[in-house]
Amino acid sequence: YDFYCFLEDDLVLHDPMFFVKLQWFNRFGNDQNLLQANRYEVSAMAPVAKVYIDGPNAAKATAAFQNIQEQPVLDASVMGAALRFERAINPHSGCFFLNQAQMQAWASKPFFMDRADSFIGPLESAASLGIMRTFRLYKAAARNAAFLEIQHMGTAYLGLVGREMRISPALATRMQGSAATEMPAQTTGADADAAESAGPNS
Q: Taking the C-alpha atoms of 120, 95, 101 and 82 in order, what is their torsion angle to the nearest 10 degrees?
């Protein structure tokens, strides 16, 4: 197969170039690097129009499973655009997409299909633990977060904006007099302390 996919049932792919981008990333780096999608929610009725929902966890939340200091940043240029990919402090995306070599690499590990649930809980572990222990996980950086993204249906996180999810003063100023604003990825998902207590959620 071209890809072996895991996808939670509340996620929607809209980007027709999604798998082309994954193939490019695999060629750009190597099969030890795995690119995860940034999840987002959208609504025309919310205080902000779009939120990337997987904010950073405290580093200790994944320290037992990954070393984010190993090749922490990858920079690339695509069609003249500078792109940055960063090791995922919060690796959860509710999905993953492995090519043939990556699937074989994971299947060869002694922990493959061991049903461990030590990352947050069973749901998050099913989606993230095995690949986190096998590969270097990356996500597109905040400045180019839309390079690889996937929609999380509903507005469960958008409903937290301004309450449990803090809004920076700069963003609050931008929102004044505006019906809807896109919320930059670096301001979403609450701060590290809140993310640590809440986990990645799903």
A: -100
Using CA atoms, how far apart are residues 53 and 64, in angstroms rounded to an integer?
Answer: 23
Write down the pTM of the prediction. 0.81
- What distances in angstroms separate CA 175 from CA 6, 23, 138, 163, 197, one per listed residue? 36, 37, 30, 15, 28
Q: What is the pLDDT along the chain (202 residues), one digit of tens a residue?
A: 999 999 999 999 999 999 999 999 999 989 999 999 999 999 988 778 899 999 888 888 898 899 999 999 999 999 999 999 999 999 999 999 999 999 999 999 999 999 988 888 888 999 999 999 999 999 999 999 999 999 999 998 888 876 766 666 666 666 555 544 455 444 333 333 333 333 444 4
Cα within 13 Å of Cα(9), Cβ side? 0
User: Two tokens at 66?
Assistant: 């990954």
Residue 150: what are its φ and ψ, rounded to 5°? Answer: -145, 140
